[in-house]
Amino acid sequence: MTDLTDLTLAEARDGLKAKRFSSRELTEAHVAAIEKARALNAFVLETPERALEMAQASDARIAKGEAGALEGLPLGIKDLFCTKGFQTTAGSNILRGFEPQYECTITQQLWNDGAVMLGKLNLDEFAMGSSNETSAFGPVVSPWRRRGSNVHAGGSSGAIEGAHLVPGGSSGGSAAAVAARLCLAATATDTGGSIRQPAALTGTVGIKPTYGRCSRWGVVAFASSLDQAGPIARTVRDAAILLRSMAGPDPKDTTSAEIPVPDFEAAVSRGVKGLTIGIPKEYRLDGMPAEIERLWSEGADWLKSAGAKIVDVSLPHTQYALPAYYIVAPAEASSNLARYDGVRYGLRVPGRDVIDMYEKTRAAGFGREVKRRVMIGTYVLSAGYYDAYYVRAQKIRTLIKRDFEEVYARGIDAILTPATPSAAFAIGEKGSADPVEMYLNDIFTVTVNMAGLPGIAVPAGLDSQGLPLGLQLIGRPFDEETLFAAGQVIEDAAGRMVLPEPWWDSAALKRKGPA
Amino acid sequence: MSVDQQTVRRIARLARIAVTEDDVPHLQGELNAILSFVERLEEVNVEGVEPMTSVAPMAMKKRQDGVTDGGYAEAIIRNAPATEDQFFLVPKVVE
Predict the structure, then answer these.
(1) pLDDT above 50 (res A1)
(2) A57 domain-assigned
(3) Are strands A152-153 and A160-161 parallel, antiparallel or unpaired?
(4) Is A170 tagged catalytic?
């Protein structure tokens, strides 16, 4: 039998159905892989006992012929989703030890469909970051290495040595765990690119659905008008399967859309014949690496050969999306994060009086990036600046959305762009002096959140250093199906991404002998 | 627009984040880097444009104004740093 962790989610599902292996065997294989991959720091909490309990219950249901859509499939959960009785930290010291007394809607839906929880995944603190370097639990190591890199699992301790690459962020733990085959797929969230950017940097598939498609209830809030959850998986089909279980209206979230969830998996094999795909000229940046430019036109050629019509389109306000985002998102964050005050949950640092207690608690509990964003948000919402910054940014958001509406009104079904402006970078390489340098990672993804649209990142090839690069498809509101159909065409043309061998498991390499 | 050190202290106070004198200069630099990045929004003509209030046109969901949940005070205070008799404890706020 091939290694059970090498299976796709769909293959594992079909194998369980055909009783080729049990959920217990499948889960044990993943638990073992996680233990050997601790040096990657992808998990902040492992829940093997819970996983095996759930797997056994799944095996019983499968035996009785009562299997759900995700029955017996082991998943990783980004540590932004509240899980009842299991620590949920949002990657922050301010929530260390917090054990929700309730289950968020999305994970509840996954468990209702039979999924198995392997543990909670590392992320940038409060999902604020593009490299997973802002996590209070430390950075995540990407399973990818540059060709000829000196990064390796060292000595007897097994710690990673050398300047490793970041997996992207904020869903860095999710992307790294899926690429390293520590889970079949993972939940993630995306406020400005936090699903699509790490997916692109790790050779995985990530979709941010339309705003309102998935409930936000019980997901730690960052910027409520932009936040949306979605899956990261190893294939387009796997992402479609997982999204179907995550999505759907929820009476507990007033912004969740009362729209039925289609069978996303059925859309995967639809093809793109007769579709019109737009190529926006504003995404052609000065100084963009030639490899990305080439991959982008290759992607257009693949869609064209599969029967789509390719047309040039214009989204004139694109360049304003990122600066407008850095007003809207911090403003909403400063309001959402006001709740962390040392009273109801999380950290408390004693003070002279209640204000002093708040200030000391938040100073000690929040990391630098979170403090920066809360302060920017506080500033742009403060008296005298509100109109100049916040209201202006919200007007520009209207213009960004209008750009997309005009393109879609011309009969465009989806828009093809690069997913990121570069491949993965090394830890400590970006943003140490100027935070804006890190923010530029989201330049192609953030427009989609600003307009509330669905966007998918699909691996499309490797750069000259052997690192994955992704393409992004942007769809019409609530038309994720077209993204799955077109995404599959790209996956078929590019060929399934060959993921790195587990070099992070020094013991396994010793068993195999020197490379 | 850029912020001076006095403004950095004022924003920190409004945000309820204690900052030390050592923090102020680098915070000022970082905040000004972000503010200068967003400055280009000033060149956009937004005359007559409505600010966005919702990304998708959707009517606010409503429900009966009734009690639908509750009755588990223990669960609610479970994660609190300090409690007494199902109350959250805070430092004295009224003399």
Answers:
(1) no
(2) no
(3) antiparallel
(4) yes
Domain limits, chain B: 5-42
Dist CA A239 CA A187 (whole Å): 10
Q: What is the ipTM of this complex?
A: 0.96
**Average pLDDT of the residues of chain A:** 95
Rounded to an integer, what distance in angstroms lies between the CA atom of residue A81 and that of residue A269? Answer: 31
Ramachandran sector of residue A138 (left: φ over 0; alpha: ψ -120 to 50; beta: rest)? left
Q: Could B58 and A212 be called an inter-chain contact, meaning their C-beta atoms sit closer than 8 Å? A: yes
Quick check: is A281 catalytic? Answer: no
Q: What is the pLDDT of residues A46-88, one digit of tens each?
A: 999 999 999 999 999 999 999 999 999 999 999 999 999 999 9
For the segment A323-360, what is each residue's pLDDT rounded down to a tens digit?
999 999 999 999 999 999 999 999 999 999 999 999 99
Report yes or no on A350 lying in a domain: no
Closest CA to A210 of A275, A256, A264, A171: A256
Domain count, chain A: 1
Nearby residues of A234 by Cβ (< 8 Å), 6 or more positions away: A8, A9, A178, A179, A181, A184, A185, A204, A205, A497, A499
**Residue-level pLDDT at A515:** 40
Q: Which residue has the tokens 């070099």?
A: A503
In-domain check, residue A347 = no
Q: Chain B within 8 Å of A367 (Cβ-Cβ)?
A: no
Q: Is residue A14 part of a domain?
A: no
**Per-residue pLDDT band at A511 (split at 50, 70, 90):** low
Domain of residue A443: give its range: 124-315+403-512
**Is the pLDDT score of A510 beyond 70?**
no
Q: Among this protein's residues, is A194 annotated catalytic?
A: yes
Which domain CATH number covers A438?
Answer: 3.90.1300.10
d(CA A137, CA A141): 12
Cβ of residue B70 closer than 8 Å to a chain A Cβ:
no
Name the one residue in this structure whose structure tokens are 């769909």.
A10
Q: Is the pLDDT of residue A514 over 70?
A: no
Nearest Cβ partner for A353 among B35, B42, B91: B91
Question: Residue A39: which of A177, A153, A172, A170 has the closest Cα?
Answer: A153
Residue A457: helix, strand or coil by DSSP? strand
pLDDT digits (tens, 9 = 90+) for A85-119: 999 999 999 999 999 999 999 999 999 999 999 99
Mean pLDDT along residues B71-81: 96
Q: Is A350 on the interface with B (CB under 8 A)?
A: yes
At A415, give phi and psi (nearest 5°). -120, 135
Nearest to A398 by CA among B54, B58, B38, B59: B54
Contact A366 B40 (CB under 8 A): no
pLDDT of residue A512: 53
B67: contact with A, CB 8 A cutoff: no
Contacts of A177 (CB under 8 A, 6+ apart): A34, A40, A42, A43, A76, A121, A183, A186
Structure tokens at A478: 């609530």
In chain A, the N- to C-terminal Cα span, in Å, equals 24
